[in-house]
User: Fold this.
Amino acid sequence: MPEEINGGEDRIYLWKKGTDIIQRPDHLRFSIDSVLVADFAKIQRNTTRILDLGCGNGAIPLFLAKKTKAKITGIDIQAEACELARKNAAINGLSEQISVICDDMKNWRTHFPPRSFDHVISNPPFFPYNEHSLTKGGEALKIARHETKLALGELIGVASALLKDWGRFTLVHRAERLPEIFDFLRENRLAPKRLRICHARPSKDGRILLVEGVKCGKPGLTVLPPLILHGEGRLYSEEVQNMFAAPGDDDSPSVSNNNDLNGGKTMTLFKHKLHTKERESMIKISNLIREDVRQSGVTSGIALVYCPHTTSGILINENADPHVVMDLLYLSKKLFPEGDPKYLHAEGNSHAHAKAVLAGNSKAVVIEEGKLILGHWQDVFFCDFDGPRDREFFVKILEG
Assistant:
């Protein structure tokens, strides 16, 4: 089911992974950390059950489903996040493989017997919480970023209790917390086996770590080569770009192959779906395009916004005063009234086709320093003249 933009949700299509993700701006969006930990996880052939502790909107289960047929369960304390995770499983056709439980993970005994899972994975809150902690956003973001509901040691204890002997625990976290992570792993009979530190650039200190522990495993740690996240400018490195490709899909070119086809320039495609609620409406989509630009890593180029429908279009105009939008819709109705008896089109929506021609089906917006170059009062709108309907639009990010 398509998301409703007016309801505060947006939908991102990761073209190379073939994955749709619905997100909400008032909840923690999936980030590169989710991609990294899902890629780092070593799923064994005999793995049948995987648990994601603190699954949020379900991004990690979606990515894991690209590399395993094992049943994946996510658990999260926030009801809204669980609802998003269920939606994301459904729109990707994965409801049979991915299930979601809404509860405090400390109540795990209510849902699972001990030693139920072959693999446990987590992208937990990174920051300890106390009365002096600086938090941004609302309560949902505070819970996702700070250990307000569950401390790091408690999370690792839950992971150990739910893992079978010789099961694997995969974690992404802040590199500065490595000493206590190792302490908690050993306290809970999880032998650290693999470690990789992620650096924004070769000259920068490592800030993110990926670690794997094996329950009842023998001592012996493999420290993998550093993972460099970014290449030139804000573009992801080739290794990170390849993580966005569907595993084993050699026929679907990765982002790096797109670079080769475009003279070394990055081209990234995003797909958004929305449901319009009114007969005629103008929906602001600038923030969705900004998020696409951020995820693409392109700092200088063009964002091409394209609408594939014949009774809707893309428009750039004022959004500071909402009366401007109301006036534009009023004038379009006056110029092309609905129900004119002289219209010949049998479907009775010729007025909508005419309005879509005036709006146009695409707009190009300049990107500079990683930002959209829009006038102070300007926004980009998706205009629907034949609603309510399920609609979609595409954003192509071109570097150069």
Observations:
- The longest strand covers residues 163-174.
- The chain has two domains: 26-243, 255-399.
